[in-house]
Amino acid sequence: QVQLVESGGGLAQTGGSLRLSCAAAGHTLYPYSVAWFRQAPGKERELVAAISRSGGDTSHAGSVKGRFTISRDNAKNTVYLIMNQLKPEDTAVYYCAAAPSPNTGTYYWNAENYDYWGQGTQVTVTA
Fold first, then answer.
1. Which residues are within 8 A (CB) of 116 and not within 5 positions of it... i.e. 6 or more apart?
2. Are 88 and 125 contacting, i.e. CB atoms less than 8 angstroms apart?
3. Are the C-beta atoms of residues 11 and 126 closer than 8 Å to each other?
4. Half-sphere exposure of 94 (CA within 13 A, CB side)
5. Which helix (H) or strand (E) covers residue 101, if one does?
6. 111 in helix, strand or coil?
7. Chain centroid offset of residue 23 CA
8. What is the pLDDT of residues 65-87, one digit of tens each?
9. CA distance 84 to 41
10. 95: which of 23, 43, 56, 115 lies 20 to 30 Å off by Cα?
11. Residue 104 is inside which H or E element, if any?
12. Phi, psi of 32 (to 5 degrees)
């Protein structure tokens, strides 16, 4: 059982930055591709970024491309989401999720592939 714990959320001003962390407890994260999702009130959950288990392959949603960067440090068992140039529309609860990955270059875009989820961390961006 992989337990994921997100941290780093909080309040930021438009144009500001935050770094979210997703730490795994009880199990190494290496066999898993990891993604960040977000859900704003009244909206559907959306995938923000995904990263392969090696960290060599990543993908970012169009709405955050060029502003957010997903990365991972397997030695620290942690995945990060660096968020720059924040906008009010980035306000949401952010979740990290892990999916068993058959090879080092795989990541998934569908939430259904992810077996383990964190509890979420709130990000609020003020105008």
1. 1, 2, 3, 4, 32, 97, 98, 99
2. yes
3. yes
4. 30
5. none
6. helix
7. 11
8. 999 999 999 999 999 999 999 99
9. 22
10. 56
11. none
12. -120, 140
DSSP string, 9-59: -EEEETT--EEEEEEEESS-STTEEEEEEEE-TTS--EEEEEE-TTSS-EE
Helix (H) or strand (E) holding 3: strand 3-7
d(CA 88, CA 109): 24
Phi, psi (5° rounding) for residue 44? Answer: -75, 155
pLDDT tens per residue, range 30-45: 999 999 999 999 999 9
Residues 114 and 98: beta-carbon distance below 8 Å = yes
Element (H, E) at 109: none
Nearest Cα to 125, choosing from 51, 38, 62, 66?
38
CA-to-CA dists, residue 21 to 44, 69, 102, 110, angstroms: 22, 12, 24, 21
DSSP helix/strand/coil, 82: strand
pLDDT surpasses 90 at 26: no
Residue with tokens 């906008």: 87
